[in-house]
Design goal:
It is built from twelve helices and ten strands. The chain is an alpha+beta fold and 381 residues long. The two termini are 27 Å apart.
C-alpha cells in the first residue's frame, strides 16, 4: 500500500511541486519569525549572558529587566559582602549614554561601569585590545557593531587591525582602547565597557546598578540568603536572564505581533495543503474507487492518504527549514546588524510538529469524499 500511495503522489508532479512549495513557504515563515522573535527578545538578556565571572546578580527589588535597573545604595555593597557564602562582590554601574564622533556620527549605547580594581563584569571576548587596556585614563571598550556604525570607513580594515579613535560621551572625551565581540542590547544598539570611575564622569548615574557576586556554594541558596538578609533581589545569572526574557515577552506587544505572523504562516499551510490535496483526491477519485471495490477498507485508505501527506510534509518541511537555516546563517555574521540571530532547535522541532499537524488536518478534510465514496463509481462514465 505504501508503494501505491507514493506512486499516486509522485504521478502528478505539478500538484506535488505546488503542495511541497506551499508547505515549504509555511515552514519558512514560521521558522524565520520564530527565530526572529527569540533573537530580538533574547537581546534583552545579552548583558547578563556576557558576564561570565558572576554567579549572582543583586539588584533593587523594583528592577524588572537587565536594561532598566533601579540604583542601589552604596551601603548595599557592604551588606551583600557580609552574607555567608559570598566569596566576592563587586559593583556595576549601568546607564544609557549618547556617543558622538568627530565626523558627526552618533548613537545611543549602554555603558557598563565595572569595578576599577578587579574589572569584574568585563566580557571575555575581545577582537582587539584586552581588558587590561581599560586601566588607562578615559578608556573604554566598544562592541563591534557599534564600532562599525560609528566609523564605517575604519571598519573596512580586517577585524583586529582597526585604528581605535576617540569619541564624545555626553560631551566628554573618551578613548576607545579595545573592541569586544559582545552582542547588542535590546534598548540601545551599542555596548560599552569601562571602569566605574569613568562611567560616573560620562553619565548621570553615580550609584551601583547591580552587585555582581561570586559564591563558594550553591548559587541559588546563596541568592536566597542574600535576599532574606538584605531585602534586595538576588538571582543566579541564568535565572536573571530568564526573568528578563519573560518580562519583555509579557510586558510588550512583541510576542503578539510575531504570534500573528506565525499564525498566518500556519493558515497559509492549511489552505495550500487543503486545496492541493482536495484537487489531488478529485483527480484520483477513480483510483480510490478501484481500491474500495477490491476490498480496501476505509482505515487502509486513511493510512494510504496519510502516508502521502507525511511524505509531502517531510519534503516541504525539509526545504523550508533548509531555507530558514540558510537565512540565519547569512545574517548572523560578525559585523551584520542581525548578529546573534539564529534558529534554535526548539523552534525547528516545534515547526516540524506544527507542519505535520497542519498537513494531516488539511488532508483529513479532503478525505471526507474518499470515505463516502461509492465503489460503483468506477463503473460509471
Amino acid at each position: 500500500m505504501l508503494f501505491i500511495a507514493l506512486r499516486m503522489l509522485f504521478g502528478d508532479p505539478v500538484k506535488l511541486i505546488g503542495l511541497v512549495a506551499g508547505i515549504a513557504f509555511s515552514t519558512l515563515l514560521m521558522a524565520q519569525q520564530g527565530g526572529f522573535f527569540i533573537g530580538l527578545v533574547g537581546r534583552s538578556a545579552n548583558g547578563v549572558n556576557a558576564v561570565a565571572d558572576a554567579d549572582i546578580w543583586v539588584m533593587d527589588r523594583q528592577t524588572d529587566t537587565a536594561e532598566s535597573p533601579v540604583a542601589l545604595r552604596p551601603i548595599d555593597l557592604f551588606r551583600v559582602r557580609s552574607v555567608e557564602g559570598v566569596r566576592f562582590a563587586a559593583p556595576m554601574i549601568q546607564s544609557t549614554v549618547t556617543l558622538r564622533t568627530a565626523d558627526g556620527n552618533s548613537s545611543a549605547a549602554l555603558v557598563y561601569g565595572v569595578d576599577d580594581a578587579t574589572l569584574t563584569g568585563v566580557p571575555q571576548k575581545f577582537v582587539q585590545g584586552s581588558p587590561d587596556a581599560l586601566r588607562a585614563p578615559d578608556s573604554l571598550a566598544i562592541d563591534m557593531l557599534a564600532f562599525k556604525k560609528l566609523w564605517p570607513d575604519l571598519a573596512k580594515a580586517p577585524i583586529g587591525q582597526w585604528k581605535l579613535p576617540s569619541l564624545e560621551i555626553n560631551d566628554k572625551r573618551a578613548l576607545v582602547v579595545a573592541v569586544t565581540d559582545t552582542l547588542p542590547g535590546f534598548a540601545a544598539p551599542g555596548v560599552l565597557h569601562t571602569r566605574a570611575s569613568n562611567a560616573v564622569n560620562w553619565s548621570p548615574q553615580t550609584r551601583p546598578s547591580y552587585i555582581l557576586v561570586r559564591t563558594d556554594g550553591d548559587a541559588a541558596e546563596v541568592a536566597r540568603r542574600i535576599a532574606d538578609e538584605t531585602g534586595l533581589k538576588a538571582l543566579p545569572s541564568a535565572a536573571f536572564a530568564a526573568a528578563t526574557f519573560g518580562y519583555v515577552v509579557s510586558s510588550t506587544g512583541i510576542a503578539f505581533s510575531f504570534g500573528v505572523v506565525i499564525a498566518l504562516g500556519a493558515v497559509v499551510g492549511i489552505l495550500v495543503s487543503g486545496l492541493t490535496f482536495t484537487l489531488f483526491v478529485n483527480d484520483n477519485i477513480k483510483q480510490f474507487a478501484v481500491l474500495k471495490a477490491v476490498g480496501v477498507t476505509n482505515l487502509r485508505l486513511v493510512g494510504l492518504v496519510s502516508a502521502q501527506a507525511l511524505m509531502a510534509a517531510f519534503l516541504g518541511f525539509s526545504f523550508g527549514l533548509w531555507s530558514a537555516s540558510g537565512f540565519f546563517e547569512g545574517v548572523n555574521r560578525p559585523l551584520a546588524d542581525l548578529k546573534g540571530f539564529y534558529l534554535p532547535w526548539q523552534i525547528a522541532t516545534t515547526v516540524g510538529l506544527a507542519t505535520v499537524g497542519i498537513v494531516l488536518f488539511a488532508t483529513f478534510i479532503s478525505l471526507r469524499r474518499v470515505l463516502r465514496l461509492d465503489p460503483a463509481t468506477i463503473f460509471r462514465g
